[in-house]
Write a structure and sequence with these properties.
There is one protein chain. Helix 2 runs antiparallel to helix 8 and helix 6 (209-225) crosses helix 9. This protein has 364 residues and is an alpha+beta fold. The longest helix has 18 residues, at 135-152. It starts with a strand and ends with a strand. Strands 1, 2, 3, 4, 5, 6, 7, 8, 9, 10, 11, 12, 13 and 14 form a 14-stranded mixed sheet that branches. It folds into 2 domains: 3-189 and 356-362, 3-Layer(aba) Sandwich (Aminopeptidase); 195-333, Gcn5-related N-acetyltransferase (GNAT) (Aminopeptidase), CATH 3.40.630. It contains 10 helices and 14 strands. This is GNAT family N-acetyltransferase. Residues 210-346 form the BioF2-like acetyltransferase domain. Its EC number is 2.3.1.-. It is an enzyme of class 2 (transferase).
């Protein structure tokens, strides 16, 4: 059955009921409206959710799309939930959570399953709320998530990659103690406000002198070497070559399986015009590339990889990241999302770190 209905318990049950859908089709227009009205990043819009359903980059046993309605039947909030048999693919939870009762295991999530929002390929989890995210509304959604996790055999449930400080983190801080939720820091993402920089030259001019000089020097040397850079639709890009570069880069973090062969290409292609691929070529050979995701307010420098030994006189990585910022400026979006990790490098470009938290509880 495509949709089932459940009501939140206790105080939430009087104000909201929550629908759980196995497919986005029945609620597509309502969901898209909530994502638009809440100014959510691309990860929460139908194009991304559809692409992930068609080509899941991480094993998903089941997806539930929660839609909360008030007593008048008006849609008030939405939240995607993903039952992940391995809930910690990046290894950021396992040493921070308590052991599950009766397991005797060190750490709580090393081999555990979880019903989580969002997938780990999203670094900005939101609840799509129309109006304030009140305690009864959050309770209704969390009650539904707990029930689905229990019925589906998940060992944990909750939200990961929640920005702090922020409205959602504040609401979860209030709800967490009564639910036995653990609050742990899992990562950091980096962003830049581009509204003060009308052009690429203005952006570079805003950086510290040493970084300005470095970028200009690399730019001159790249031009002398004949580096060719282009930004293209995924269907025109060398996605196989890009994945090879990405996986070599991810090997530094022990996460080469985070972007599986075949599924990565299908996922990026399924995003259509919501994805742009940056390619760097030297003597016709791909030496650097990035997959960028775009929404109305942001360009996400989502994943990248370079051959660090291909250009001894300049850094393809620096110029690749700068090209991502240039593409954001060309599109006129106010925010450049630089992704997670590698903070010292991204701070050279003026990006600001934003802590990411997980709120997860064992399923009793």
């Amino acid at each position: 059955m495509n949709a089932s209905h459940t009501s939140g318990t206790s105080r939430a049950s009087h104000a909201f009921h929550v629908e759980s859908h196995d497919s986005l089709e029945a609620v597509r227009e309502v969901w898209a409206g909530l994502a638009r009205d809440s100014r959510a990043p691309l990860f929460h819009h139908p194009p991304y959710l559809d692409a992930y359903a068609a080509a899941p980059l991480h094993h998903i046993a089941r997806t539930s799309y929660l839609l909360a309605r008030d007593r008048d039947g008006a849609a008030r909030a939405a939240l995607p939930l993903f039952h992940q048999p391995e809930m910690d693919p990046l290894g950021v939870l396992r040493h921070q959570l308590p052991a599950r009762p009766g397991t005797g295991a060190e750490g709580g999530a090393g081999a555990g399953s979880g019903l989580l929002s969002h997938v780990w390929h999203c670094y900005d989890t939101r609840i799509l709320a129309r109006g304030p995210l009140t305690a009864p509304l959050l309770d209704a959604l969390l009650d539904a998530a707990h029930r689905i996790a229990r019925d589906g055999g998940a060992q944990w449930y909750g939200l990961v990659n929640v920005e702090a400080p922020g409205a959602l983190a504040t609401a979860l801080d209030r709800a967490a103690p009564d639910r036995g939720m653990c609050r742990v820091r899992v990562d950091e993402r980096f962003t830049a406000d581009l509204r003060r920089h009308p052009t690429a030259d203005a952006f570079v001019a805003s950086l510290r002198p040493r970084q300005r000089q470095r970028l200009r020097r690399y730019g001159r040397r790249a031009a002398e070497a004949g580096l060719a850079t282009r930004v293209v639709d995924p269907r025109e890009a060398d996605l196989d070559g890009l994945l090879e570069l990405v996986r070599a880069t991810m090997a530094k973090f022990g996460a080469t399986s985070f972007f599986p062969e075949g599924l990565f290409q299908r996922f990026v292609t399924a995003l259509g015009d919501r994805a742009r691929i940056i390619e760097q070529r030297l003597d016709g050979r791909l030496i650097g590339g990035a997959a960028c995701l775009v929404d109305e307010e942001r360009l996400h420098f989502w994943i990248s990889g370079v051959d660090y030994g291909a250009a001894p006189t300049f850094s393809p990585n620096y110029l690749l990241f700068l090209e991502g910022i240039h593409e954001a400026l060309r599109r006129g979006v106010p925010v450049f999302e630089g992704g997670r990790r590698n903070g010292p490098f991204k701070e050279l470009f003026g990006l600001r770190g934003r802590p990411l938290l997980a709120y997860v509880a064992p399923v009793g």
